[in-house]
Every structure is written in structure tokens, then in C-alpha cells.
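#struct-queue
[09:14] JT: dropping the first one here, sequence first, then the C-alpha cells:
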Amino acid sequence: MNAEPADLAALAGRSPSGRADTQRTHERLIDAVQEWVHTHGAPPERLTDVAALAGVSTATAYRHFASVDDVIQAFVLQLPARAVELFDRSGGAGDDPLESFERWNNSWVTACLEHGPLAVHLRSSTGFLQRRRERDPVIVYACAPIEPLLEALDGDTTMMMFTWNVTSDPREVLDLHRMGWGTAKIADFVTRSVLATPSPLQSP
């Protein structure tokens, strides 16, 4: 899966043109969310505020994003997009399922350390499995690279995905990093935790 700016925009309800200036404006709006969260410790509530911070008109902002929620969503998706980029650079999915999964976790943890400090302010209050069942576009996008990796391993994919989400949550990754854990150690912890996921209990 290759994450392009158009992919992120499509999830947010807009598809920017191929013009360089238009794409730069699109990126400035997403960067403005990052600046707002960094300053206020909370997501912006109005697209008008994002537009002002980006130095564009509100009308221009609405040509890129249908709402403030859409531009926030595009910002959040930068984390999985960066993980995909790093994963592809490291060799992507190979013949060995475990090695591929380990490469993914290293890529994900690295992306979390880059984007996590701000992304944690924008986490949903709805449970991960519920959002996955409801085909939440952010969850669908974020899960697309990892689901094939988990399916290649021996275990229940849904339960392994649940464990992966819990142990690789940017908040937890950052907690472990603050404790002095390096990228490789955190990634190994996530890998081992997922491999140890118990199968669901059988109904009597």
C-alpha cells in the first residue's frame, strides 16, 4: 500500500488537483492542524481557525476539506502513511511472515515517535474493534498494510489486530520511549505480544 496525498484527501472528502500550488496549500492546511495542536494541546474546532493559521481564506480551505473533522482526519492519517513509507523502504512484505511483521513494527514505532506526540490528542473515544466493524475510513486505511501480515501468521487475525492496536498505540509507544526503551525494543515487545495473543474462547 502506497500512501499518496490524494489518498489522504480522498478519505477526507476531497481530491486535490495535480497542480503544485494546490497541493502545497493542501499540505499547509494539514500542517496548520499540527501547529494548532502543538500550541493548544487540543484539536481545532473550526476550519476557519485552520485556514487562518495556514494563511489562506476560509473559502480556499473548504475547497480542500469539507469540514474541520476532515482536515483533522487527514492529519491523523499522516502517521500510518509515514509507517507505510518506512516499511516500503525497509523491504516491505517478504517471503518470511515473521520478518515482515517485525519490519512493519519497526516502521510503525519509528512513525509513532515522529508523529505520535501530537496525534495522541486526536484519538477517537470509540473502541478500535467497533470502528473496524463499522469500516471507519481511518481504521480501514491504517489496518490495510498490517492485516495481510497478520493473516500470514498463525492465529486469529481479529484478536491479533486487537493486541497490536493496544500495544502499538502511539500513547503506549511514547510511554515506553520515555522509560528509555529504544525503537527496536518497543517493536520487539509489540511483535512478541501479538504472537502471544490467545485465541478467542470457544462457546460452550
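[09:21] JT: and here's the second one, same format:
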Amino acid sequence: MPTIKRKQKTRKRASPAGKAGPVNEWLELRRSPIHGLGGFARRDIPKGTRIIEYTGEKISNAEADRRYDDEQMRRHHTFLFILNSKTCLDAAFGGNEARFLNHSCDPNCEAVIERGHIWIDAVRRIPAGTELLYDYQYEDDPEYTEEDLRFYVCRCGAPNCRGTIVKTRRKLTT
């Protein structure tokens, strides 16, 4: 009788720690004044350029909630990216250097979702040496308090900074 092999569920490996240096023709990683490692333009990037795909393990929203319980975290830090109403990408597993791009309230890049892929594209010309930034646009919840918004703190330093990575019209008091 032939042996039947069961398909084993394999979890992607944890993404390696980020290292400073070139990633592709457009992007390199180095220390960011905003947070940790950041992505910087290796050369002038024309508006509309597709810079990098954001990759990671595809997981359900329920699994994302299980992995990252904000109430148990001292500070918010994940590599989750919502792909659609049922699926997230977790770049902590199977992710690439796109996970190191930081947030800004005045971004020079945007995330574009096409056919199950997330791309980071330039929304304007970006001079060489400039940090590549996109607006994380965390979903606002009408029940969020000012303390909740501060949990998702923004340190981008832009003149129009909301003070939070949550996409809200509310202004935080200083």
C-alpha cells in the first residue's frame, strides 16, 4: 500500500534583521532620523516609479490580531499591512526591506495594492539621499481617545504632522 504524505502547513521563516546597504537600483537602507532603519533614494527617483514590493506572510485578520495585541504592547510596532478585508501581510515573516520604510504625514511615496500585491511607488520626484516615506493611514476608530491616538505616535516632523499614524482629522493637543 502506498504511503500518503500529508501536506504540512509551513510557516514562513522570520524575516532577517535589516542591514544598512543597497537593496535595489532605487533604494538603500540606513539609519533614519525618524525611526530605526529607513529607506533612502540611491539616486533621483522619477515620479511614478515603482520602487519595491511590500512582501510578507499572508495571514487572516484574526491571526494578525492574535500575533499583535496592542493592549499587551508597551509601544506599537508591527510589520502588518492590510491587503484586503480578509487578509494582511506580516512582513515579520517572509518580508523584505520594504518593511523598513517609515511613515510620514507628508509622504513622497504611496502604497498601491494591485492583484494581491502591495507596491511602493513614488508620488513625486525624489532626490537622491532623501528618505522614502509613505502614509501608513491606520484606520481611525470613532472610539479612539487621544491616548489611543498617541499610542500610534508619529515622529515624522512634517509641518502638517498629525502626531499619529492614524488617518484622522482630529488634532492632538500638545
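[09:30] RK: nice, looked through the second one.
[09:31] RK: The mean pLDDT is 86.
[09:31] JT: good to know. The chain has two helices and eleven strands.
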